[in-house]
Amino acid sequence: MLPKIKGQENALELLDKAIENDRIAQAYLFYGSDGVGKFTTALYFGMAVNCLATSELKPCGECDACHKFLQLEHPDFVYLFPTPNLNLSVEGEIKNTDAQKSYEAYLQNKINTPWKDFFFKDATEIRKESITLLNKRLELSIHEAKYRIVIIEDADMMNNATANAFLKTLEEPPERTIIILITERLPLILPTILSRTQPVYFKPLTRGVIEEILINEFEINSALARSASRICAGNLKTAIRIASESESLSSNWAFEIFSLAAEENDLGYLELAERYKKQQTIDQVIDLLKYIRIIASDLGSLSTNPDSEITNIDKLDFLKPIAEANLGIDDRLYDFLLFLEDLNRKVEGYANLNLVLTNLYLNCKHLLKP
Predict the structure, then answer these.
(1) How many folded domains does the chain comprise?
(2) What is the pLDDT of residue 245?
(3) Structural contact between residues 182 and 42, judged by C-beta atoms closer than 8 angstroms
(4) Does the record's keyword annotation contain Nucleotidyltransferase (predicted)?
(5) What pLDDT shows up at residue 186?
(6) Are 61 and 196 in contact (CB under 8 A)?
């Protein structure tokens, strides 16, 4: 089952056996870090149990049912995720025009480019009104599917009132309905919800699996696929974003910052900051920090052993002279990596990106020339 899902053999085996033995649980909890295939597996699992193909290979991805699931529009499919206040009517209609546009843009991003994170302008959560509408929907008869599928993404973003309202659904689940909760933050799920779901763990993807996916499914050249797989920390979404950039924008940006830091060219940095002004988005800066981290690690390795195996092997002619000209990088590397982790948290917390990048440049200078 689910041949498109890579690197999650244990999770797939559990789901395969559930289908094979006709012992499908009414509620699952898919948990694990971001970008490892939780949502894709949940969607394909729903497709597999409802696929109309006569062959044993399910889901086929081509029948009417599979097509509707892939477009997130099957009449027996319910998809909930954290949103701003949509100002829902009693019938579930979104009355806020701007929220409607953002909601539709989120769904299109999920269908066409799911590896790209989507950010709403306002604070998001899974609201009680959404669970109320879900419960009303579950009271209705199933239209055409064998199993009705409910996917609740980022289920940890239910507040207590929402979680308690949802708990009633779990206590008396409708027949022929499969509810799949998805989370990256398992400790935030209420114990009462945990006890009523079957947990399925999704492990971080290995570098080899990510590299294989980038090369075979996205036609990324092997050198870039190798770098992206090392930088992404087991997150396929991050790897795809990095590797899919035209000439790897984040990589070029990171090397330019180190080049200017090595030259102590502050005026050059100000010009660089102006040139990359449009690229100052949360996603882009987070990817930039990952490249900075791997470049710094390469410099630390070369400073202790000029013959070390590094990630950016194609940039050896650039990195080696910097490592040789700036002694003690390896001694300062640990503090620099801690600084990058702190900077990453600030970016995710919506810090001023211009100040973040200036701080980054100054600390790159300090790593090279304290």
Answers:
(1) 2
(2) 60
(3) yes
(4) yes
(5) 94
(6) no
| Domain match, 144 and 71 both | yes
Assess whether 167 and 273 both reside in one domain: no
Q: Does residue 252 sit within a domain?
A: yes
| Co-location of 189 and 275 in the same domain | no
Measure the CA angle with vertex 338, ends 337 and 341; round to 5°. 90
Q: Is 34 helix (H, G, I), strand (E, B) or coil?
A: coil
Question: 190 with 322, same domain?
Answer: no
Q: Which domain holds residue 160?
A: 9-82+125-204
Backbone angles phi, psi at 97, to 5 degrees: -60, -45
Q: Cα torsion at 160, 162, 166, 167 (round to 10°)?
A: 20
- pLDDT number for residue 3: 63
Q: Alpha helix locations (H) across the chain? A: 9-20, 38-50, 64-70, 97-112, 128-138, 160-171, 191-194, 207-218, 222-231, 236-244, 249-263, 266-275, 282-304, 316-325, 329-348, 353-368
Tokens of 190: 């209420």
Residue whose C-alpha is closest to residue 103's, from 128, 68, 79: 79
pLDDT < 50 regions, the chain: 1, 246-247
Compute the half-sphere exposure of residue 118: CA atoms within 13 Å on the CB side of its CA.
20
Cα 276 from Cα 253, distance rounded (Å): 8
pLDDT tens track for 160-171: 889 988 998 898
d(CA 369, CA 262) in angstroms, rounded, equals 8
Residues 276 and 342 in one domain: yes
Tokens representing 127?
């609201």
Q: What is the pLDDT of residue 246?
A: 43
pLDDT, position 2: 59
Instruction: Using DSSP, state whether 182 is helix, strand or coil.
Output: strand
Residues 171 and 316 in one domain: no
Statement to judge: residues 153 and 278 lie in one domain: no
pTM: 0.74
CA distance 59 to 356: 45
